[in-house]
Design goal:
Elements lengths: L6 E5 L10 H9 L2 E4 L15 E4 L1 H6 L3 H15 L6 E5 L8 H12 L4 E4 L5 H8 L8 E4 H4 L13 E4 L4 H11 L8 E6 L7 E6 L13 E5 L8 H12 L5 H5 L6 H17 L2 H24 L5 H14 L2 H4 L7 H18 L17 H14 L7 H17 L3 H21 L4 H25 L9 H13 L2
Parallel strand pairs: 1-4, 1-5, 2-3, 2-4, 6-7
Antiparallel strand pairs: 7-10, 8-9, 8-10
Helix pairs in contact: 3-4, 8-11, 10-11, 15-17, 16-17, 18-19
């Protein structure tokens, strides 16, 4: 094999023997033996007859976990590299495109000061794009099917196309399909690329929901997922907001500050609540978007001031969610939702202690700007988590009766306001015991009052009267009639 080089990492190309590089053929003709990650590749049948061919396919048959297979391959190649003649390790395509073993071997060899020679090969990317007659630019995501199938949602933006490697079986295709369907319509047209660059090349265009049914899926299959539409990614929204804030953008947007946008943020939040109350899915979609604009706008303002970026925001909340779910991402076992909440509070207390924020109490984390009913419910819930709670609902009802008596006995305005507040707080506790959201309950009651009063108004008009001309008894009769019809 000539001068000892320790390890030769060699790419066999996508499958057509004519696409193997002249350098690769020269190395293979000069070598006595070659170790293949897999012999399930069309080029293998055309390898020089004088070459002794080994493969690691037996590891795939013995081990179901690919990470374990790759780890064993790496270990064996590193051992072979210690021989005087070194080792030629050949993989389909390019050694550094969709090849986890090659990257790890190169890293390990560098640490051990073992020489490595890279013999490049044509990857699956170029023949796949040629089969589709498409360009990789301006933006195409290249992703491994084996990574994609472990995800619950794709990690790439749907506004740009994606090329998925190693879609080697119908089972893998089925699991990848489920992940993609979290972001793409079921009938989104995708393209299966079989044996790109070989005489058996074929492109199948199928709806996403049916992509795993193709009998042609095999070891040389890749998947192309076209973009669903422009303007559908988070990154594009960030760019749009940044443009609006730029010198070429909008004068109003450029003038905004964190403090100036407080009212806008509050209004959009209440818009979301109204959409949730109405259970109107179309309104929810629109209102969530309006609220998201506010979040992205604040992050852009912060980025321009050097305070923080959207990446900082996402990284912080991502880390927080991981840390606060040790029962999901760690070894902790929690039996039910109540145990999860208790552990959540424990973790938050540890976080405060780690920050040196020991002066903050349990209720200090409840925002002062919350609506009063929601704030009261949060106070009561947090206190209950540490045992400050009535033993049963009877105690709550007794407290309400007590507060009503005290309110009736109050004489001064200040005292009445105080007792009325205590009564409201006691009623919020009752709502919590009944598993009701007091804010939602009151908003629904407000909506019922509005609708019933509107009925009374319209009925009076039909009778040729104004409300001021009607007696209380007449209005009450209409009110009761409206209740019976709702």
């Amino acid at each position: 094999m000539g001068k000892h080089v320790g390890i030769i990492l060699l790419g066999l190309g996508p499958g057509n023997p004519k696409q193997v590089t002249r350098e690769a053929w020269a190395v293979l003709n000069e070598a006595d033996e070659v170790y293949l990650r897999t012999n399930r590749h069309p080029v293998v049948a055309s390898l020089p007859a004088t070459l002794t061919v080994h493969s690691f396919d037996d590891l795939y048959e013995k081990t179901s976990n690919f990470d374990d297979v790759y780890a064993q391959i790496v270990e064996q190649v590193m051992e072979l590299a210690k021989r005087p003649q070194g080792v030629v390790y050949a993989v389909p395509g390019h050694p550094f495109v969709a090849e986890a073993t090659s990257r790890e071997i190169a890293t390990r060899a560098k640490d051990l000061q073992i020489p490595v020679k890279l013999v490049q090969g044509l990857s699956f990317v170029e023949p796949a794009l040629a089969a589709l007659e498409l360009d990789l630019l301006p933006q195409t995501t290249i992703v491994d099917a084996l990574d994609l199938l472990t995800q619950h949602h794709p990690l790439f933006p749907p506004s740009a196309p994606a090329l998925v490697a190693q879609l080697y079986s119908q089972q893998v295709a089925a699991e990848v399909k489920l992940t993609l369907m979290a972001a793409y319509p079921d009938d989104h047209s995708v393209h299966l690329i079989h044996a790109a660059g070989t005489s058996g090349e074929l492109v199948e265009s199928v709806p996403l929901h049916a992509m795993d049914r193709s009998p042609k899926i095999g070891v040389l299959t890749a998947l192309y997922v076209p973009a669903i539409s422009p303007h559908s990614s988070f990154e594009e929204l960030q760019e749009l907001i940044a443009h609006l804030r730029s010198p070429e953008g909008c004068p109003w947007d450029r003038e905004q500050t964190h403090l100036a946008l407080r009212r806008n943020l509050l209004e959009e939040t209440y818009g979301v609540l109204a959409a949730l109350d109405s259970e109107d899915v179309g309104d929810m979609q629109e209102e969530f978007g309006d609220l998201l604009i506010q979040i992205v706008l604040h992050a852009q303002i912060a980025a321009e001031a050097g305070e923080f970026t959207m990446s900082d925001v996402i990284r912080g909340v991502y880390t927080k969610l991981i840390d606060r779910h040790p029962h999901v991402f760690g070894d902790l076992e929690l039996g039910d939702a109540e145990a999860v909440i208790d552990n959540w509070e424990h973790l938050k207390a540890e976080e405060r202690e780690a920050k040196g924020d020991t002066g903050r109490g349990l209720l200090d984390g409840v925002a002062n700007a919350l609506p009063a009913l929601t704030q009261a419910e949060s106070y009561g819930s947090r206190a209950a988590r540490v045992g400050f709670e009535w033993p049963n609902i009877a105690g709550v009802l007794e407290k309400i009766d007590e507060e009503i008596v005290e309110l009736c006995q109050a004489k001064e305005p200040t005292e009445r306001r105080s007792e009325f507040g205590d009564l409201l707080f006691a009623l919020v506790n009752l709502a919590r015991w009944l598993d009701l959201d007091p804010e939602v309950a009151l908003r629904e009651a407000n909506a019922r009052f509005k609708n019933r009063f509107a009925y009374v108004e319209s009925s009076a008009v039909q009778q040729g009267k104004s409300l001021k001309e009607m007696s209380l008894e007449e209005m009450e009769a209409l009110w009761q009639h409206s209740k019976s019809n709702q």
